[in-house]
UniProtKB/TrEMBL annotation:
Keyword Transmembrane helix in record: yes
Similarity-based family: Belongs to the DoxX family.
Protein name in the entry: DoxX family protein
Main location: membrane
Gene source species: Paenibacillus vandeheii
Transmembrane region(s): 7-26, 38-59, 71-89, 101-119
InterPro entries named in the record: DoxX (IPR032808), DoxX-like_oxidoreductase (IPR051907)
UniProt keyword rRNA-binding present: no
Pfam families in alphabetical order: DoxX (PF07681)
Subcellular location: Cell membrane
Amino acid sequence: MNRSVEIGLFFSRIMIGLIFVLHGWSKFEGGISGTVGFFESIGIPGFLASVVAIIELVGGAGMILGLGTRVFAALFIVVMGGVLLTAKVGQPFISGTELDYLLLAGSLTMLFTGSRFLAVDHFFSRQGNTRQNVSA
């Protein structure tokens, strides 16, 4: 992939990660009980509130760092699919679900392309490649 594409993916990766970190953090801020109650009110088991919050918080941080980008992107796709099929079902696109669809699309992009620019994963893979080349 050329450098300008990688830089563009980098900015998308950072923004997706930041949004998920902030959403995950907000679920814990002031206690998770409010989010548990909301989940239960729409028919989702309450324990999933913590699971989703952890995926968002840890996955968002991983996305920012470029650590496990594709794994966290896949988890974000599951989370956003769940959001769109439960909490946001029936809401309008404008002023309703547009951010959710954008996060879903961005996560799909990260799943299929990854993002190597300034990514921890890429650094480790380059180190591994360097070791292989040196020992060959």
